[in-house]
Amino acid sequence: MQQRWSDLDDGALVEAYRNQAADAAFAELVRRYQPRLFRVLVGMVNDPILAEELCQRTLVKAALNMHQLNKAQAFYGWLLRVARTQALDELKHYARRNRDPFEESLMGTVDPGANHTEKHLVRAILGRLSPDERLAVLLADWEQRSTEEISKILGLKLSATKMRITRARSRFRAVYKEMMAAHG
Amino acid sequence: MGNRKKRDTVQDLLAIALDDANLPEGAEKRCIERVAVETGPFRVIPRPAHLRPSRAAPASLDEAPGQQSGAGESGTNANSE
Questions:
Q1: Tens digits of residue pLDDT in A63-106
Q2: Going by C-beta distance under 8 Å and a sequence separation of 6 or more, which residues neighbour residue B55?
Q3: Tens digit of pLDDT for each residue in B12-35?
Q4: Residue B47 pLDDT more than 70?
Q5: Distances in Å between the alpha carbon of B19 and those of A39, A88, A164, A184, B13?
Q6: DSSP label at residue B56
Q7: Tens digits of per-residue pLDDT, A138-176?
């Protein structure tokens, strides 16, 4: 009977890729996680084309370094950690060139004639947070990851992670109120 | 900004920002193909800096063309690691 990759859990797929170089197993992991990863990365860089590129780089890096994954079941958390590094590197490149990937959204909120939407407004709020605050909010409130998982992804201690999430949420709400007040 | 969704929590706001952020068409195939190329047998592995051929001028004019001076090894097999 032909093996159905979609029936296997992450651990089995990771093992199949590691031990048998089964490309189909990795393809199943891509199918399973790329859409979720993409949304997190859109939240991080506010650009779907760049988010797709970062998704690809993340998954290539993951495939090349699969042997470093200790607990095969924790594949997606590990993937998010790789994605964080990719996104932060890219954002540093933007900063060096004095560019802001959230500029378009920010422009949309200050130009009353622009065809801005709530989506752009909320993305602009994300742009006002630091990259790690942004990621903390995305992981806690969009991905619904536990504080422990987030601490591993951000490379912080548990107490520092809790503080980062609380601060990021409170800043997010404050900027939202500020922007709503500015736009009536 | 009509037709506003409920936005009581950070979660609701993020849903407004990201609910329609779907992967572009063909993204899955592009990704799988790129992984295959970049992890496959013909991938180009960047050589560590200390193993790259030196760009310094030849130490002597007698040095044969193609010979490299300095610490680098000759670069015929870019894929070996």
A1: 999 988 887 779 999 999 999 999 999 999 988 888 888 876 55
A2: none
A3: 999 999 988 999 999 999 999 999
A4: no
A5: 8, 23, 24, 24, 10
A6: S
A7: 999 999 999 999 999 999 999 999 999 999 999 999 999
B21 and A64 within 8 Å at the Cβ level: the answer is no
d(CA A140, CA A142): 6
Q: Compute the distance between CA of residue A99 and CA of residue A170 in angstroms, rounded to an integer.
A: 26
Question: Quick one: pLDDT at residue A108?
Answer: 44
User: A116 and B4 in contact by Cβ < 8 A?
Assistant: no
- With beta carbons less than 8 A apart as the criterion, state whether A17 and A66 touch: yes
3-state secondary structure of A93: helix
Amino acid, single-letter form, for residue A132: D
Please name the amino acid found at residue B65. P
B1 in A contact zone (CB under 8 Å):
yes
pTM value is: 0.78
Q: How far is B55 from chain A (nearest CA, A)?
A: 27
Say yes or no for a CB contact (<8 Å) between A119 and B17. yes
Task: Confirm or reject contact between B12 and chain A (CB < 8 A).
Answer: no
Name A87's Cβ contacts closer than 8 Å, sequence gap at least 6.
A41, A44, A45, A54, A131, A135
Question: Are residues A17 and A63 in contact, defined by beta-carbon separation less than 8 angstroms?
Answer: yes
Closest-CA residue of B relative to A168 is B10
The two three-digit tokens of residue A178, written as one number:
């500020």
What is the value of ipTM here, to two decimals? 0.84
Say yes or no: B51 contacts chain A, CB-CB below 8 A.
no
